């Protein structure tokens, strides 16, 4: 188990080019770059409220282009929550998540207590290869949450991170540092039909 | 009563029986002669010497002599060894058979034609001349003897067939049993040979040097083959080396490369799989292509701020690489440089290529897993600083020009 520190570590996994960095950058900086730069590994930090206090949300944006098992294991063992990203335009990118999920399962044991979000990114794209129901079915099988997003159009990005934090039952976390959770209800309303928590 | 009846019965039969003696003699004589000519071995000799002169034995000996000219690994030699033994055994069986025929058929026939029957016929003549009671009795006894023995004489021919059947059966069973064994061992040998040649040709995970010396090539098979295919169909593919390919296709291509048989047309349609297989090869090398020994030196050189000086240091390091590593690195980097020329289409700038491929070219020596963790993470960032200028200044760093093999693939 990761040590109980002030950091809440979220690790973003996924094949190359599915938009992990775009999602993280959209969430952290609110921007979308249309450039094409693969990620080696980046870590972003943001302060969030946690149990009537504040903590640092640390987001590790991993590389999708070369999976070194050792690095992957390290990221998983350090991580509290995981975002598994595929592109709805690539069936293969969903396939690529399977070994990663297995790795999480192997290292964390019981994944049901671990917040995991399966994310189908690039929902703005028209050349869809993975239907929403296919992503839902996969999430169902993995007993994890599911959401479709678009970093480009900023669709469901903030919601993705908030939902992930909500999945952690041991902590009461919110992206709003004022500690108010009033927005949660309305957000949940907004998410209806877009997000399904299995 | 008994005697009379038998005498009278005999008297009835005696004429018939008498008429058989002469043909029996002729038959025994001629058939003995003809059967003798069927014999391949010299009659009268003991088994060992008899066998030595059999044509089969001569065949076996010739096989033994011929196989000496083959090396121990030759499958002709292995098969001939077995054949030599088998022909010898067949010769042995033949000799054994002929000895039995000789003893159980030829000799009795001979005795019949040369001794027994002439004796009867002689007595017949005497009987005709003298008609004495003695000779009559003697002749009658002979005829009686012949009559009772006739079945036995007929049995000689049955015995011949039996012996032949026995011999053929024995030979057949022996052949059957050993042919299967021979075939099995031959095919196993074939398989083990194939397996051997496969293991010889196995390239993934093999040290670069041993693969190159085994394949007698200058460029490692996966590097050459993958680049050959990518040059044809992969240069304009967006995110080549970045995007994941179907793992199953990559696996199959890796297997093909291990076996040295790649269907270019099958894999060329999937450039990402080809790029994946190339990345795998580099990553699975026991030592990084740019060597563990120079690991720190590469980073040191990359940290040099002055470009001219940096490139100079790179040149020094490139010279320090073993020639095999240098040749393959040159081949690969020159290809990557060509790939980056298409960056407007494939979006793979030298920097992007360095990010996605660099960690497969240079990685730290594993000193305990904990060390590997942080070093791997740190080195992945650093390695871009090494690989990017390598690709960007490829023509200046590799002054020999484009590798001719690579050029021929263009």
Automatic annotation (TrEMBL), chain A:
It is found in: Cell membrane. One of its GO terms (molecular function) is GTP binding. Residues 178-192 have a biased composition (Basic and acidic residues). GO terms for biological process: signal transduction. Residues 176-198 are annotated as: Disordered. The keyword ATP-binding does not apply. Pfam families: Ras. GO terms for cellular component: plasma membrane. Its main location: membrane. It comes from the Eukaryota. Keywords: Cell membrane, GTP-binding, Lipoprotein, Membrane, Methylation, Nucleotide-binding, Prenylation. It is a lipid-anchor. NCBIfam families: small_GTP (TIGR00231). Belongs to the small GTPase superfamily. Di-Ras family. Displays low GTPase activity and exists predominantly in the GTP-bound form. This is Small monomeric GTPase.
UniProtKB/TrEMBL annotation, chain B:
Pfam families: BAR, RhoGAP. Residues 206-398 form the Rho-GAP domain. Keywords: Cytoplasm, GTPase activation, Phosphoprotein. It is found in: Cytoplasm, Cytosol. It comes from the Eukaryota. Coiled coil: none annotated. InterPro entries: AH/BAR_dom_sf (IPR027267), BAR_dom (IPR004148), RHG17/44/SH3BP1-like (IPR047165), Rho_GTPase_activation_prot (IPR008936), RhoGAP_dom (IPR000198). SUPFAM superfamilies: BAR/IMD domain-like, GTPase activation domain, GAP. GO terms for molecular function: GTPase activator activity. One of its GO terms (biological process) is signal transduction. One of its GO terms (cellular component) is cytosol. PANTHER family: 3BP-1 RELATED RHOGAP, BARGIN-RELATED. This is SH3 domain-binding protein 1-like. It comes from Sphaeramia orbicularis. The lineage of its organism: Eukaryota, Metazoa, Chordata, Craniata, Vertebrata. The gene is sh3bp1.
């Amino acid at each position: 188990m990761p040590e109980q520190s002030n950091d809440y570590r979220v690790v973003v996994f996924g094949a190359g080019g599915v938009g992990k960095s775009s999602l993280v950058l959209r969430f952290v900086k609110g921007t979308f770059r249309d450039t094409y730069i693969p990620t080696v590994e980046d870590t972003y930090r943001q302060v969030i409220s946690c149990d009537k206090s504040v903590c640092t949300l640390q987001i590790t944006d991993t590389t999708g282009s070369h999976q070194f098992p050792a690095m992957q294991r390290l990221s998983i063992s350090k991580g509290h929550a995981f975002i598994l990203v595929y592109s709805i335009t690539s069936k293969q990118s969903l396939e690529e998540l399977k070994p990663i999920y297995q790795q999480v399962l192997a290292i964390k044991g019981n994944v049901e207590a671990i917040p995991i979000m399966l994310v189908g990114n690039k929902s703005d794209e028209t050349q869809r290869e993975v239907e929403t129901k296919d992503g839902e079915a996969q999430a169902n099988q993995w007993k994890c949450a599911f959401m479709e997003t678009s970093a480009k159009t900023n669709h469901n990005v903030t919601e993705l991170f908030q939902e992930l934090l909500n999945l952690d039952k041991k902590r009461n976390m919110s992206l709003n540092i004022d500690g108010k959770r009033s927005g949660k209800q309305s957000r949940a309303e907004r998410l209806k039909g877009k997000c399904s928590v299995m | 009563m008994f005697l009379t009846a038998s005498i009278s019965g005999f008297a009835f039969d005696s004429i018939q029986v008498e008429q058989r003696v002469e043909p029996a003699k002729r038959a025994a004589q001629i058939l003995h002669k003809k059967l003798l000519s069927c014999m391949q071995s010299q009659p009268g000799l003991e088994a060992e010497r008899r066998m030595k002169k059999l044509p089969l034995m001569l065949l076996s000996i010739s096989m033994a002599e011929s196989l000496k000219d083959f090396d121990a690994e030759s499958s002709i030699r292995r098969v001939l060894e077995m054949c030599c033994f088998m022909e010898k055994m067949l010769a042995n069986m033949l000799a054994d058979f002929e000895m039995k025929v000789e003893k159980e058929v030829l000799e009795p026939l001979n005795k019949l034609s040369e001794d027994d029957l002439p004796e009867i016929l002689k007595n017949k003549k005497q009987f005709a001349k003298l008609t004495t009671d003695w000779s009559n009795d003697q002749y009658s006894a002979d005829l009686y003897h012949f009559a009772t023995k006739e079945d036995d004489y007929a049995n000689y021919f049955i015995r011949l067939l039996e012996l032949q059947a026995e011999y053929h059966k024995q030979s057949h069973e022996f052949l059957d049993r050993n042919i299967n064994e021979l075939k099995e061992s031959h095919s196993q040998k074939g398989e083990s040979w194939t397996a051997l040649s496969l293991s010889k040709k196995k390239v993934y995970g093999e040290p670069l040097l041993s693969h190159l010396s085994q394949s007698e090539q200058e460029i490692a098979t996966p590097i050459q083959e993958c680049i050959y295919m990518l040059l044809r169909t992969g240069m304009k593919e967006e995110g080549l080396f970045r995007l994941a390919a179907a793992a199953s296709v990559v696996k199959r291509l890796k297997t093909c490369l291990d076996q040295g048989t790649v269907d270019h047309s099958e894999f060329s349609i999937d450039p990402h799989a080809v790029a994946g297989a190339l990345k795998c090869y580099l990553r699975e090398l026991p030592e990084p292509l740019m060597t563990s020994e120079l690991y720190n030196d590469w980073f040191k050189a990359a940290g040099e701020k002055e470009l001219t000086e940096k490139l100079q240091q790179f040149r020094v390091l490139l010279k320090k690489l073993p020639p095999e590593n240098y040749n393959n690195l040159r081949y690969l980097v020159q290809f990557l440089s060509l790939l980056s020329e298409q960056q407007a289409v494939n979006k793979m700038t030298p920097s992007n290529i360095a990010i996605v491929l660099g960690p497969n070219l240079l990685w730290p020596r594993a000193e305990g897993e904990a060390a590997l963790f942080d070093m791997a993470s740190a080195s992945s960032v650093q390695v871009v600083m090494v690989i990017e200028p390598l690709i960007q200044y490829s023509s200046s760093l590799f002054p020999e020009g484009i590798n001719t093999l690579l050029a021929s693939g263009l």
